[in-house]
């Protein structure tokens, strides 16, 4: 391997930080009094460095080789999909160096807009391909419906939302070389809003938003609803600003009635 007779083909399965202080668990590990708080939540590994826009020493999926590889001709078997379909993603890999080698193709998925917080991108598939000098091969990776889902702890189920998803082909988590977008048209069952739901969850339903505006007419919140910050406010904040809890719960009941009858 050191002399070049054998070409290394492995890639890192973790992220190497510049400093130990850069790790997502630095402030909460090892904990105290026998308790460790997993404060990083979803943002472990490359997900944390993506969100912080922090450059690590070596990113997840990184690897060296005695040859070079060219990625091209990204295509998908469908540009629109549903929660029942699989998506096949194909890319052409060419060995552009002078020695044989193997490359690990990585496929990440990015939810362009989500109701809940999601990582910037998530690794969903990968494959290793062996290539002689100058040789090119197509690599096909398959995405299952679950690969587009996130877990909603409020409803205790996996959720696939309609909307745009980016499919990202990378040599590592920090080296995305090709990308395309597909449209997810998922059937989303009605999920009642709760007191912890956010205002933005009804923004796309004019009839429900009208109920909120009518209820809050004449109050401080009537004008606030048109601000860019209103969507990030959970309903229980209305209680904190003086609206009786019974009134907030009544508002939610009316909203849910409107949404369930859509």
Automatic annotation (TrEMBL):
SUPFAM superfamilies per record: Beta-D-glucan exohydrolase, C-terminal domain (SSF52279)
Location of the Fibronectin type III-like domain: 103-173
Pfam family, one: Fn3-like
Keywords, sorted A to Z: Hydrolase
UniProt KW Transferase keyword: no
GO biological process annotation, one example: carbohydrate metabolic process
GO molecular function: beta-glucosidase activity
Protein origin, superkingdom: Bacteria
Database matches in SMART domains: Fn3_like
Similarity-based family: Belongs to the glycosyl hydrolase 3 family.
UniProt-recorded name of the protein: Beta-glucosidase
Annotated source species: Thermosporothrix hazakensis
């Amino acid at each position: 391997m050191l002399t070049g007779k054998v070409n290394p083909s492995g890639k890192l399965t973790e992220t190497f930080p510049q400093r130990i202080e850069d790790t997502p668990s630095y402030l909460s590990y090892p904990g105290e009094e026998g308790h460790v708080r997993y404060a990083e939540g979803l943002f472990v590994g490359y997900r944390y460095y993506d969100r912080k826009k922090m450059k690590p020493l070596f990113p997840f999926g990184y690897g060296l080789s005695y040859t070079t590889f060219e990625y091209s001709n990204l295509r998908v078997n469908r540009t629109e999909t549903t929660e029942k379909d699989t998506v096949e993603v194909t890319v052409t890999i060419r060995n552009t160096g002078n020695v044989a080698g193997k490359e690990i193709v990585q496929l990440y998925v990015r939810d362009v807009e989500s109701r809940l917080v999601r990582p910037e991108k998530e690794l969903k598939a990968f494959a290793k391909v062996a290539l002689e000098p100058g040789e090119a091969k197509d690599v096909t990776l398959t995405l299952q419906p679950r690969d587009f889902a996130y877990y909603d702890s409020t409803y205790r189920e996996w959720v696939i939302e309609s909307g745009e998803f980016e499919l990202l082909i990378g040599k590592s988590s920090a080296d995305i070389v090709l990308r395309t977008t597909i449209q997810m048209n998922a059937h989303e069952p009605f999920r009642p809003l709760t007191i912890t739901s956010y205002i933005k969850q009804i923004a796309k339903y004019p009839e429900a938003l009208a109920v909120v505006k009518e209820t809050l007419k004449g109050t401080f919140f009537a004008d606030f609803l048109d601000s860019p910050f209103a969507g990030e406010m959970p309903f229980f904040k209305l209680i904190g600003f003086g609206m009786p809890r019974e009134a907030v719960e009544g508002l939610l009941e009316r909203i849910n009635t409107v949404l369930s009858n859509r």
